[in-house]
Amino acid sequence: MTAMDLLRALLHGAAVTQEGSAAFPADELRYVLEFGQIADADLERLRLSALLKSEAFVLAPFEGPGLEKFLILRFQGVEPTLPRRDMFSIGYELCDALGLVSAEPDLDTPFFADPLPGPPLRETESAQVLGPLCWVPTEPPTDRTWALTRTGVPTAWALSRGEGILVGQPDSGVATHDEIEPDMLRLDLAWNALNGTGDPTDPLRDGAANPGHGTGTASVLASRAGGIITGAAPAAELVPIRCLDDVKIFNAAPVAAAVAHAGRVGCHVISMSLGGVPSRALHRAIQQAIADDIIVVAAAGNCVGIVVWPARYNEVIAVAGTNSDDEPWKGSSRGAAVDISAPGELVWRAQRARIRSCLRRCARPRNILRDCTRCRHRRAVARRAWPRSSDRRGAPPRYKRPGSLSRRTQADGSQAGRLGCRVFGGGRCRRGRPHRPAACLDRARCPGIGSRSAANGRVPRR
């Protein structure tokens, strides 16, 4: 059976769809087709239908400058569970049959996954996750502004604080947080590449690696001066673009579409705390952004050793991570492709809680009470930001409210350890009267609780 026969078998009996959406939903088999000239989607749809002997696919153009020669081939309802070898074989046969320049499968590469502890690995040019490099046993700086002062940002504010600058942020989207003020976001220009809508909200999905990643990186970039932390450009405006469902999974096609969208809406800078394998569509979108005088910056990589893409492209400024002593962070990618370095270890950022995992851990009343008495010395929890007791996996976490802050170890702000279970709102922890867990905010599941939302870090009392 050839690779094309395998694809036809997958499509046998699949529902026929006429939808032409350019959305990039997660867990969907998808290819990016590159043509030698500007592609006619209607004509190519007829050719594909004859080749596949099926109409159970969506063929849609990218929306944005520079990607006119690319089309998105989506197989709705078909998950990308084929072996990688078969997925590439299908791409090669599509190239030969249709006379394409390239046909790249949109592979989910786990380059930003939270690493697991393990034995040291050889220092080789590979993209294998290097877990031991990511753990930082040292105590973090107590000064929340140390990363700004180390890089001379307060001095630069005399020249500009980012007024009038639009920063496109392809990431996991944003969630409600005290450090993300309304005037900081240009939601009228935002986009969700995963579902094709204008809502970039991060759903903080259970099971996702580091939920709230986009919220954290946004706070490092542009949190306003009146908050607990201050971003590097506190007067800039962000255009959040949700193109990742899970930080540990990198799909190049939605990122390419996100870069193109940022250029289309007039962003001056594109900042990406993500990375994975190379992609011709992503590279072309970046080249177009550079041609339009947009500055493109990307994290060099976390815990993978080598510099990943898109940071590895010559057009992109690749940023590696350092610590408070201006030394390389152990988990940062390194090599000749790195252009500059900036603080990436134990940097303060906004963080969201894993609400449901908190409920599972703290569902039994005595556990809630025990955890409460452990933290009884904390006051004004709803207004203060408490660091984790350790950034090492296996160490007991401290407990803090949703919407609190945490010191991180990753160059892009992604999580290096387990999140603590946040069970407290404001006020004191009193024996015999523990607060409800933060997860218990669904009135349908928990009748009788107050109406105030946990989004701002306040949990209703009994």
From TrEMBL:
The keyword Protease applies. Keywords: Hydrolase, Protease, Serine protease. Residues 162-346 form the Peptidase S8/S53 domain. Residues 383-419 are annotated as: Disordered. It holds the Pfam family Peptidase_S8. One of its GO terms (molecular function) is serine-type endopeptidase activity. GO terms for biological process: proteolysis. Belongs to the peptidase S8 family. PANTHER family: CEREVISIN-RELATED, PEPTIDASE S8. This is S8 family serine peptidase. It comes from Novosphingobium aureum. The lineage of its organism: Bacteria, Pseudomonadati, Pseudomonadota, Alphaproteobacteria, Sphingomonadales.
